[in-house]
Structures are given as structure tokens and as C-alpha cells.
Amino acid sequence: MTFGSPFLLVTLVVPLLALVGYVWIERRPLREGIAFPNLVVLASIAGRSSWKRHLVAGLLLTTIAVLCVAVARPRLPLAGTSDRATVVLVVDVSVSMNATDVAPSRLEAARAAITAFADTVPGRVKVGLVAFADDSVVVTAPTTDRKALKAGIASLAPGYGTAIGDAVARGVELVKLSTGENIPVAGESVDGAPLLDRGPPLGAVVLLSDGSQTRGVLEPDDGARLAQQAGVPVYTIALGTLAGTVTINRGGTEIVVPVPPDRATLARIAETTGAATFEATDAEGLGAVYDRLGRVVARTEKPHEVTAAFVAVAAALLAAAIGLAGLWAPRLP
Questions:
Q1: Strand order in the sheet with 126-132
Q2: What value does the mean pLDDT take over residues 268-273?
Q3: What CATH number should be reported for the domain whose range is 83-297?
Q4: Which of 144, 202, 298, 309 is in Cβ range 3.0-4.6 Å of 125 for a Cys bridge?
Q5: What are phi and psi of 260, to 5 degrees?
């Protein structure tokens, strides 16, 4: 919980002083006796329960304390979706995506899972699509048009090579262009200059790959550092089994090549950028991963003032104190 006017919390000294005063009055010995000529009145007062009196006093003190917190304008973080949020899906389309250890093939399973992702993520979130093999290509620029996105997903076709580092950099670039965010997060620095805090990230990259880097200018760790400096989390998915293979033609001869996913590299990218990494060895698992990501990557927490709620609680406590005091008040005969 945060406060819009935290300095006003000093008013909490009021109920504290009131509590001290109440305890002092309760324990103070009477200096003089009080005469009760009417024994019925004396019996009525003597029969009063002390815990009832203390409960009413406690409710009143709590009411004051809640009101003191209310004047400080308390705020609670509530989950929501930013209108400027952008998610860029970066998908490996190297030849290894033809492997069938993930039925019917890694690429077909990826198409199905990403299409379902498009229906899961909130409609006002922009989603872009980048395909990469030996180079990274923007298939669909970030958009809220799900038909255009799905058309881009359907057009994915396998190529050669795996340029993971370049693909991460391209995804981060699209996020920055779409959100208009060009200031890296606090805690980092560029050329020794401290950076400002811009709050929670408005965009994220979801990277799916099924192999190790074989092409590209940037190494995977270089791409991860660029994402870290830009404040863009990169969620990674390692697709395929360690026993996955693909048949390729080399010089007229077909050979079987093992294509295990590089889980360690993908995990390192996610860790560097403050995101999470996942492993998917079948189509169902891959769908579950994208379903989960569709519900979290575009979510952000924003502080919402809850002063009215505190005032309502104080009013209820005050009403309870008045009601109980009236109910338990002694009646003169």
C-alpha cells in the first residue's frame, strides 16, 4: 500500500494519545466515595460489564485510526491492462521447426498455439509478429487487428539458420516503437549516466525457439542486454524434445540432423531481462504456455486511491459503536 499524502500519517498519534488517556482514566483511583441513596440504581451500575465498555471504546479508537489513514489518501495496486501495451511474438522458423517430435510438427504446433494466444490476450493490446531464421523479418507490425495477425501467423514458413540475438533485438525495437518508450528502466545506465524510472514496462517480447544460434550478427546474450537496457522483458519458450531430429538434403544426400532446443541460452535471456522461461515438449504443453502468457504479459499494476473505502469502514465502525453504546447503556429505574 502507498499513500498520496504520506506525511498526514502523523495524525495516527491522535488515536494513540486517546488510547493512553483512556487507559489512564480506567486505572486512576477514585479520590472520594460516591453516595447512592437508591440501592436499585447502585445495583444497576455495579452490574455493568467492563468488557462492553472497553469494546465500545475500542471501536471509537479504531474509527479515529481508520480516518487518520484515510486522510493520507491510501492507494492499492490493482491489476489492469494499459492501452499502450504491446506484445511482440518472435517465432523461430528455421528448418528444425519441421521436426515431428512435437506433433504434427513443431511449426504447426507453434501456429496453433500462437493463434490461440491472439484470442487470449486482451483486445486492446497490440500484438506484433516477427519470424526469424538466418535473419529476422517483421511479419505483422504491432496491431489490435487480430485478423491481420492471424493472417501473418498462417504465412509462417520454414527457412534456414537461427539468428536468436538479432531476433530479440528486432522484437525489442518493435516494442519501443509501438509504445513510444525509449527510456531504459531505473537502475541501469548508459555511458555512465543514470537513467530515470519509467514504471512498469508497457511491452514484452515472447520468444519461441527450438534450436541453438547458428547465424546472425548479435549473440543471444547481446540481444538480452539490449532488452534489459530498454526495460523490455523477454519471455522464452524452448520448443521440442532433446531427441528431436530433422531430415535435410545436403548435396543430394538426405541426412538426419539432431535438433535439440537450447534451453540454457533461452533461460539466460529470460533471466537477464527479468522474465520467465518455459519448456514445451508437445503441442498441448505449448498451448498451455501461450495461454498462460496471454493472461499475464500485458498486465500491469496501477495504484488506485481507496480513500472512500476507508471512510466507509470508519462510518460502519462508528455506527456500531453508537449502536452498542445505546444498547448497553444503563437504564434508571
A1: 136-143, 126-132, 86-92, 203-209, 234-239, 277-280
A2: 96
A3: 3.40.50.410
A4: 298
A5: -75, 145
